[in-house]
Amino acid sequence: MSGEVTGGGFTTVDKYYQDYGSRARELKKQGKQIIGYLCAFTPAELITAAGMVPFRIKGDVNEPITKADTEMETIVCPLVRSCFDMALKGNYEFLDGIVIPHACDSICRTYDVWKYSLNLPYAHFINMPHGTGGASLEFYQEVLNTFRASLAKFTGKEISDGALAEAIKFHNQNRARVKELYELRKSSPPLISGEELTKVLIAAVSLPVEESIEMLGEVIDEVKERGALSAQKPARIMVIGAQVDDVAFIKLIEDSGAWVVADDLCPGAREFMSQVDVTPDPIAGLAERYLRKIKCGRTYREMEGNYQEYLEDRFGHMGRMIDDFGVDGVVLYIYKYCDPFGFEVPQIKSYIEAKGTPVLYLEDEYSMSTIGRLRTRIQAFLEMIGK
Amino acid sequence: MTEEKKPEERKKRRTATEAASKIGPMVKASIGGTVQAREEGKPIAYTFICCCYDEIIQAMDIVPVWTENYAGVCGAKRDAQRFLERAESENFSRSLCTYALCGLGFDAWREELGEMPPEAPWGGQARPDMMLGSGQMLCDPRNKWYQAAQHYMPDVPIYDVGLPWPPYEDDYDYREVQDYYVKYIVEELKGLVQFLEKHTGRKMDWERLSQLVDLTDKTWNLIWEAYELRRAVPTPMGTGDAMNTMVPMVFMMGTQEGYDYYKDLYDELKRKIANKEGVIPDEKYRLIWGGGLPSWFALTDFNYFNSKGAVFPVETTYRMIEAIYNFDMDLSKITDPLEHIAWRWVKFWTYWHDRARKRPGSHPDVERLIKYIEDYKIDGIVMHEAFSCRSWHVGLIWQLNLLKKVYRNIPSLILESDIVDISSYNEVDTRARIDAFIDTLEAVKSKKG
């Protein structure tokens, strides 16, 4: 591990989870350039290939949103507001730039607020299309080339195909490690708890990819070595939602007598399960992954076949995960003001319930005070599923 | 209960122009027409306003159902709550777009009954044969709403048109990327035509489409010229009326009826200016409606502003046109109608970029405000933050902050409510805030002497 922390994977995870951004701060002092980004739809590979460190901006459920409200409307998703609040309060003072993808309205429509308020040396908006058809893919490749040229202009150095291919290789390796970690959740009881895994992934997205790979490797070794978790928790739960960047909600479920063994979250399965194919033009592989392979409500997947087949195309990965990870119940955890996921709730809920798995739909506001209020509903749900 | 005491009774808004007063019956007829078209078996498409493919729909004689509009009508008639509640009972969050929630609640109810919900406003919203969404930087519900509606109408196909535009960036000019934006939009529009041909069995009449595209250009120019007349003191038309006169701009592009409507409006405004006939006789404060959709159930607030001596000669909301001849390219030379539409779209959304480039630290949205403030002799800005819509209502605070930084401090007011959900609105509080704002305007005016 090239970072400062020694003592094993989980020790590293704890440090970087508790003191989020500390490694980026160290690297900044060493002369590295740090580029903050929002959302899993930022192709971090390009930032790595440009010789800079991609750093995922996160919020903090424990910190009341105060400063952000003077510059950003309260009708924005509370996660994005919290991220912005953290930035305004100086938690990410080490950033050299910010990259914001066309993810959802709350992210897209606040790009200028971020850009002009933080006034960092670098800012870029990745205008990702919604559709996934051939024209959309071709357009998106152009958009990524514009991003590539913009990064090169900022650093003063072209991003070669070789450098990009190398970055893709590292990021694929990183995702493969996460996938390996997920495999360790399949046993009963799982080898790693949901709380632990969430911490690992959050720490990982704050690190340069090479360091993340190393940390994940150490965590995998430690988990395998220690064996299955000893606590008896009969229910196995999957959580579906947008970005969950704190353990509080996952811990709440696990403290209520269940293991969280699967998810469709960011950072989580949605973000880490698909790889970039090696293609002659590396941009083609990147575009394919980010536009077509990541299945998220923000992307509009064109309907082919009948409606049932369409639901399979959009939500089939959730169904497969329920089967593969032996899930007993699903918690659909949606933030207020979240347009991409909010509109999908009835469809996801009925799709999963039709497969015989019960679903608890919870709307939340991304704060410790509201998360605590969900305890009773989670307990009632676990009782209802009889586990 | 007497008529006067009904708490929810909608007060009719007083309009300044005859053109604005024609809109209510026009919209009613349009909605009624879609219900009748359904009975007659004509192809019907759910669609969104300001989506740039109006002429394609018109050229193929497809009957558009403007779903945002129907929700707005329900809101204006103060009869949206039951549809919003229905959507909520279906597990849609009340924090989502209330146009969409009203529409989804309506659709869920209509599909369950197999007929229109009881006493549906203006006869109800006709069941579509297809739904035309769009993917763009503006609004997630434009691709999520219809996808969600398929939960109730799984047999109704969707075509989602990708309609991006170049963002304003510091390190490159939009002209460096505009070609690939146009190329993409053209491909998406071709896909739309193919989709419509497949689902209607009709063939696109390309010559007719070209004529309608030209007609839209002419109409845009005419609207721009008519709206510019509102610079006059006293102004002959305010934003309250513009919330009506926007209807043909977004429903009737590519129709002679739309063009004729604005010809009448232009003539009427000219007459009023000649007669020095303003919205109010004695203008004290000239305001800009600088952002946000209106509360459709509370348009009488514009009359309240008028009663305090305030008028709105200009607004950014629903001014979804520019004069085509002011673009930096001659659109008339683009003969392919789909390319023409695509270039118009890109040029519209990048229109203010060059002005922003000239003022360090500025932004196109703010430059537009500055231009209007100067051209229309504006004393203050009013915006509206509708809680359920992130599309038009995020970035308002930032715009005001930036305006102050790059231009000057100007009195401003952000009202808070919603577009459709009346439970978010408090008339007493709203008017108290308007009163306080008027006091501020007066204080500033007195200071200036």
List strands and helices in order, with pairings.
The complex is a heterodimer of chains A (387) and B (449).
Chain A: H1 9-18, H2 22-29, E1 34-37, H3 44-49, E2 53-56, H4 78-88, E3 97-101, H5 105-108, H6 111-118, E4 122-126, H7 134-155, H8 161-183, H9 194-204, H10 209-226, E5 235-243, H11 248-255, E6 258-266, H12 269-272, H13 282-293, H14 307-324, E7 329-335, H15 339-342, H16 345-354, E8 359-364, H17 368-372, H18 375-384
Parallel strand pairs in A: 1-2, 1-3, 3-4, 5-6, 5-7, 7-8
Helix pairs in contact in A: 1-9, 1-10, 7-13, 8-10, 14-16
Chain B: H1 18-21, H2 23-40, E1 44-47, H3 54-59, E2 63-66, H4 67-76, H5 81-89, H6 98-113, E3 130-135, H7 141-149, E4 158-162, H8 178-200, H9 206-228, H10 239-251, H11 256-274, E5 285-291, H12 300-307, E6 310-315, H13 337-349, H14 353-358, H15 364-375, E7 380-386, H16 396-406, E8 412-417, H17 427-448
Parallel strand pairs in B: 1-2, 1-3, 3-4, 5-6, 5-7, 7-8
Helix pairs in contact in B: 4-6, 5-6, 6-7, 8-13, 9-11, 10-11, 15-16
